[in-house]
Design a protein that fits this description.
single chain, 157 residues, alpha+beta, two-stranded antiparallel sheet, 8 strands, disordered C terminus, Heat shock 70 kDa protein 12A, ATPase_NBD
C-alpha cells in the first residue's frame, strides 16, 4: 500500500522514501510542462496560471491518493492554501472526458496501422505495436489517446 511512510529500495539496497521520489518526478514534470507551455504560446506561464490534474488508478485507496496530493504539494504544484489548483482524478474518468472532447480526426489515425505476423499487441495495456517490415511501427498510447509514429532502422543481417 502506497502512503507517506512507504520506502522504496534503491539498487544499492538503501531505502528511499517514496514521497521523495514522487516529489522529484512531479517537480520535473511541472517544470517541463511550464517550459513547454511558455515556449509554444510565446507567453510566460507560471505555476499559478495552471490548474493541475494528476491521474491515479481507480483502485488506489484514499491513503495513496493523499500521498499523491502531498507529493504534489512538496513539488510546488499546488499548496494547502490553494488546494483547488490541484485535481486528483481517477484514470478511467479522465480518459473518458478526454475522449469525449476529441474530434473524430484527432482520434482516428490518418492511416490504418498494418499488422503482420510480426505484430505485437497488448490489449489491456497502454501499447499496441506493429513490427511489420512494410512500414514504420505505429504505437497507440492510450494514456495520450493518439497514435505515435516511430521510425525504426531496419536491421541488416
Amino acid at each position: 500500500d502506497l502512503n507517506t511512510q512507504t520506502l522504496i529500495p534503491a539498487s544499492n539496497g538503501r531505502k528511499v522514501p517514496a514521497l521523495t521520489i514522487f516529489t522529484y518526478a512531479l517537480q520535473y514534470f511541472k517544470e517541463h510542462a511550464l517550459r513547454e507551455l511558455s515556449d509554444q504560446s510565446g507567453t510566460r506561464f507560471v505555476n499559478e496560471d495552471v490548474r493541475w490534474v494528476i491521474t491515479v488508478p481507480a483502485i488506489w485507496k484514499q491513503a495513496a491518493k493523499q500521498f499523491m496530493r502531498e507529493a504534489a504539494y512538496q513539488a510546488g504544484i499546488a499548496s494547502r492554501e490553494f488546494p483547488d489548483q490541484l485535481l486528483i482524478a481517477l484514470e478511467p474518468e479522465a480518459a473518458s472526458i478526454y475522449i469525449r472532447k476529441l474530434r473524430m480526426h484527432q482520434f482516428v489515425p490518418d492511416e490504418t496501422p498494418t499488422y503482420s505476423r510480426n505484430s505485437v499487441r497488448r490489449d489491456h495495456g497502454t501499447l499496441s505495436s506493429s513490427l511489420s517490415n512494410q512500414s514504420s511501427p505505429t504505437i497507440f498510447d492510450s494514456d495520450k489517446c493518439k497514435y505515435l509514429k516511430i521510425r525504426e532502422k531496419k536491421k541488416q543481417y
